[in-house]
Amino acid sequence: MGILGYYFTPSNADYDIARYYSMFSDKTLRENTFMYQKDIYAEILINFLIKYDLSKNLLGFSSAFISYYFLMKSLFIVMKQKNIENKKYFMFFSLFFISIPIIEYTGIRFLPAVSLFVYSIILKNKKNKKIYIIFMISSIFFHSSMVLLIFLFLINEIIEQKIDIKIYKLFFFISLFLGIILNADILGNIIKLINELGYIYLSPAYITGKWGEGYLKRLKMLEGLYYYRQMVLLSLKKIVIVAYFLLIKKNNKKIDKYICMLGILCMSISLFQTPFERYFRVFFFLTIIFNVSNKLLNKKYKENNIFYLIVFCYSILILLFDVRDHYYSLFISYSNIVKISLINMLYQVFN
What we know:
Blueprint: H1 2-7, H2 16-22, H3 27-36, H4 40-51, H5 58-81, H6 86-99, H7 110-125, H8 131-142, H9 146-159, H10 165-181, H11 184-197, H12 213-221, H13 225-247, H14 254-268, H15 273-290, H16 302-325, H17 327-334, H18 342-350
């Protein structure tokens, strides 16, 4: 997937990767961007590539490689732990692979951050107490939104032994109502209060800014199928979360409780599409990974199979929308399949 990331060619300037590519020739844009964007990974990598006159396409390669490597490795670790049968091994691999949006790595920062964070949770679950901390902290350097997930992780570490899983479920149903009443003013004040404590900093941009309340206003101004499509996709994400709480049997394990916390977070901020979709991505990946089991297709476990079916249908629908929305970029990037190879990539990089 790293090679495909290298050859991806954005068809317009709306792609994040196009904006990053333009930084290679626009020093002012680069300086202004990194003045307010505090994610160290993108800044260091771009400056490194510019300094040594390396191909800007390595930015796409790096993002795609890191994203898919750590996400798939996370899945393989859990499948090995649970001794998944060969046939079901392939089915879970396929399900998880299609659950990863095909061009989300073009955002450069967020998907690699998610992959590192998910991998750190896997390592923590394996009792690799020292190594998981490195990957968890590293995820912040890729995208600062991981700070909130780490904050929730620490809270869960403190309270999980004192609180039964039933309480988490109760808070989930409360979050359904919070998702209706938590508007930008209320949530903005909560974020301001958290930031004033000085322990962590949460950006208000995704609540009261351009990608929060501003995005909602722009979306409501749209007419026709696009608006309704976005609303349907938002509803489907909520259905996946609700299905997890209703259909999947949970134990008093730390990971079950943490996934529940992520579900509660997502439903509480569901009015704000951008942060909701981003944190849903982490919830979605962890839910699939930690629920792989040989129960798949077993008639005794109807609830599990219904959940797998919902996840599959949602993933296929997202895949189809991605292909439709990004068809032209995918066409100009990969229509000449002969040139897409590791050897050709290395030749371009070092020539």
